[in-house]
Design brief:
The protein is rod-shaped, with a radius of gyration of 40 Å. The longest helix is centred in the C-terminal third of the chain and has 59 residues, at about 115-174. The chain is built from three helices and no strands. The protein has helices at about 5-55, 60-115, 115-174. It is mostly helical and about 170 residues long. The protein starts with a helix and ends with a helix.
């Protein structure tokens, strides 16, 4: 039974130690809070001094003008892409019409000509059609790539203008 009173006696001691720790934490909390506040004040003071050194007159107008130019460049790039897509579709339509008319003329020739001669002609036509299809695919690919390259060039130029504008603003601020 001697062990039971020891456990009971041990609990009040632990409670006293815990309350002492809590009291120490509450006393040191304001001291710890002052340190981050001082750091914040120092960093904001430095930021304020840096902003004062920068010449920000006309910056809002410059930013607005830059965004207007960005929008104009995107519109021009989209217009180029759209025009390129239109030319690809127009060329595909012309290619399809040409192929249909060629097949119609071959079909008419076969019905008038006869069996064996028509089969030989059909073989030649199929070879030519395959070569033409490959050339058309290449042409359409080049046409699409050219229009996309033109659109990309517009955007690339505007990005370079942005970089130069920011560089100039940073130089003015020094």
């Amino acid at each position: 039974m001697a062990t039971k009173p020891r456990k009971a006696a041990g609990k009040p001691r632990a409670a006293k130690k815990t309350s002492a720790r809590r009291a120490a934490k509450t006393r040191s909390a304001p001291a710890r809070a002052a340190s981050p506040q001082k750091l914040f004040d120092l960093s904001m003071g430095g930021l304020g001094q840096t902003l004062e050194r920068l010449n920000l007159s006309g910056v809002a107008g410059t930013i607005a003008e830059g965004r207007r130019k960005d929008l104009a460049a995107l519109i021009a790039a989209n217009k180029k892409s759209y025009e390129g897509l239109q030319s690809v579709v127009a060329r595909q339509t012309a290619m399809l019409k040409g192929a249909v008319s060629e097949w119609q003329s071959i079909a008419q020739g076969m019905s008038q000509g006869g069996g064996v001669q028509g089969l030989g002609q059909m073989d030649e036509v199929a070879k030519n059609a395959f070569k033409l299809a490959l050339e058309n695919i290449r042409e359409l690919g080049e046409l699409a790539a050219r229009s996309q390259a033109e659109a990309f060039e517009i955007v690339r130029k505007r990005i370079m203008e942005n970089v130069n504008e920011v560089s100039a603003l940073l130089r003015q601020g020094r």
